[in-house]
Design goal:
It is built from 15 helices and 22 strands. It has about 475 residues and is α/β, with parallel strands linked by helices. Strands 14-15-16-13-12-18-19 form a 7-stranded mixed sheet, with helices on both faces. The chain has a 6-stranded mixed sheet with strand order 9-8-7-10-11-21, with helices on both faces. A 3-stranded antiparallel sheet has the order 5-6-22. The longest helix has 25 residues. Bound molecules: 1,4-dihydronicotinamide adenine dinucleotide and the ligand O=C(O)/C=C/C=C(\O)C(=O)O. Ligand LM24SWP5 binds next to helix 5. InterPro entries: Ald_DH/histidinol_DH, Ald_DH_C, Ald_DH_CS_CYS, Ald_DH_CS_GLU, Ald_DH_N, Aldehyde_DH_dom.
């Protein structure tokens, strides 16, 4: 198992270049240098992948669930045995700290395979009895070939979060990782070969979104698309797939509120708020980017947040003491910087951070920013309404529960929200009215893979996780049997 200079597609069980023979440069954000190349795939590669997946479908969909279970567990074992190789590749590709990729990203990729391998053994269906006359039972059958398209922020974590349930439910898959972070998907291809996954069951096509990704969405052979990424891309995918009546699961952006009441456990809230603000450089759709603290503790909170933020170490991904690594790309760093400039125009005061960081001469061309805290922005300004997806939080005080709810719900997004209070009744009251697919109370990013995961409003449609994912990747068919 090794990261290689020339990444290959994984089609019909073999590692192959793009049909065109063309490669694109893969940069590491840690130095801004090219360190490998990935295939510039297009419709011809996707067509080969879909054909291979179609041929593999009868064998895979009819295989005993325990056969799928064994193979998926074997893939998880191989990832676990090679944790360091995977975690290093993830850190170099995405710029995130190795301390994160080795404890969060890669362990979660293993868990995704294990969780859904086991779920394949447990998945059942409903029946509905019409007393004295008939019984209805529901067959849940795999869809066929499905497309899985994932982003760069949690590369293998989110890639496997889609692939594993699709395979567990008996589908065959054509998947594309982000062009910014292709390396761990390539390592996964090697793991599938080593595990003995039958040819064509999983096919991984590398390349650009508008070319290779678009070809997966447009191909008449893909019956469903599971996508995580930006809201604009999600809208475009929906426009393409809807007239073809494909099933769609879209997990999109967020502008998530943290609401901090005076009665919270202040110390625990501070620890978790720092995490929810700047984990992975704020490049997680669940990060809390708008923080509202109740007026009596607002100033104490603000001063403590600024102090702790200034203490965070921005450094190269492989250094042991790095808290925040590099942002994923130059273009993304410039996007984040443009929002920092906009925030000032919109009346915000940058209390700390927002400047370029240079963790040493080897890294001077990498994409490093000091994490920023902004105060004084109105709720309806662009900085408070649009997803920045970087190490930037905006803070403001509030007085009442009603005001906090209005602020929290006042954006087009509805992915997650975090509440800090020791008053259980208030927590339930607020949770009921928050427009978010996930509400965390006195915690953040505490994940149980059985729960529904996804957002409302412009944060997407559908839910991933547990039974929801298995339902998405199957077609329910009701059979009604009259017996009297
Ligand atoms: N999980 C999330 O919520 C994420 C949100 N974003 C947001 O989106 C913004 C833009 O980031 P991008 O890297 O451009 O994300 P993106 O949404 O364009 O990329 C995500 C995936 O979609 C693919 N893709 C792009 N265009 C496609 C198309 N026409 N058809 C099929 N697949 C396509 C990409 O190749 C990648 O694999 C970020 O600044 C951030 O605000 C980005 C990544 C993850
Ligand atoms: O924990 C999860 O399942 C998902 C986490 C994060 C994202 O989906 C994201 O950042 O896109």
């Amino acid at each position: 198992m090794s990261a290689e200079k020339y990444i290959k597609n994984y089609i019909n069980g073999a590692l192959v270049p793009a049909v065109s023979g063309d490669y694109l440069e893969n940069l590491t954000p840690s130095t801004g240098e090219v360190y490998s190349y990935f295939p510039d795939s297009g419709p011809a590669d996707v067509d080969q992948a879909v054909k291979a997946a179609q041929e593999a479908f009868p064998g895979w969909s009819n295989a005993e669930p325990r056969t799928r279970f064994r193979l998926m567990m074997r893939i998880a074992d191989i990832i676990e045995q090679n944790l360091e190789v995977y975690a290093k590749a993830e850190a170099l590709d995405s710029g995130k700290p190795f301390t994160m990729s080795s404890t969060v990203d890669i362990p979660r990729a293993q868990s995704n395979f294990r969780f859904f391998a086991t779920a394949a053994l447990q998945f059942g269906s409903e029946s509905h009895h019409m007393a004295g006359s008939a019984i209805n039972y529901t067959l849940r059958q795999p869809l066929g070939v499905v497309g899985c398209i994932s982003p760069w922020n949690l590369p293998l974590y989110l890639f496997t979060w889609k692939i594993a349930p699709a395979l567990a439910a008996g589908n065959t898959v054509v998947a594309k990782p982000s062009e910014l972070t292709p390396m761990t998907a390539f390592l996964l291809s090697q793991a599938c070969i080593e595990a003995g996954l039958p040819a064509g069951v999983l096919n991984i096509v590398h390349g650009l979104g508008p070319k290779a990704g678009q070809a997966i969405v447009e191909h008449p052979g893909t019956k469903a698309i599971s996508f995580t990424g930006g809201t604009k891309t999600g809208q475009h995918i929906a426009r393409t797939a809807a007239p073809m009546f494909k099933k769609l699961s879209l997990e999109l952006g967020g502008k998530n509120p943290n609401i901090i009441f005076t009665d919270c456990d202040f110390d625990e809230m501070m620890v978790q708020t720092l995490r929810s603000s700047f984990s992975n450089n704020g490049q997680i759709c669940l990060c809390g980017s708008r923080i509202y603290a109740q007026r009596p503790i607002y100033e104490r909170f603000r001063d403590e947040l600024v102090k702790r933020t200034q203490f965070l170490k921005v450094g190269p991904p492989l250094a042991k003491d790095t808290d925040l690594g590099a942002l994923v790309s130059k273009a993304h760093m410039e996007k984040v910087q443009s929002y920092l400039s906009l925030a000032e125009v919109e009346g915000g005061k940058i209390l700390c951070g927002g400047t370029v960081a240079n963790p040493g001469s080897t890294y001077e061309n990498g994409y490093y920013l000091r994490p920023a805290v902004i105060e004084g922005l109105p709720i309806d300004c662009r900085t408070n309404q649009e997803e920045i997806f970087g190490p930037v939080v905006s803070i403001a005080p509030f007085d009442t529960e009603a005001e906090a709810l209005e602020l929290a719900n006042g954006t087009p997004y509805g992915l997650s929200a975090t509440l800090w209070t020791q008053d259980v009744s208030r927590a339930h009251r607020m949770a009921e009215h928050l427009q978010a697919g996930i509400v965390w109370v006195n915690c953040w990013m505490l994940r149980d893979l059985r729960t529904p995961f996804g957002g409302m409003k412009q944060s997407g449609i559908g839910r991933e996780g547990g039974q929801e994912a298995l339902r998405f990747f199957t077609e329910p068919k009701n059979v009604c049997v009259k017996y009297r």
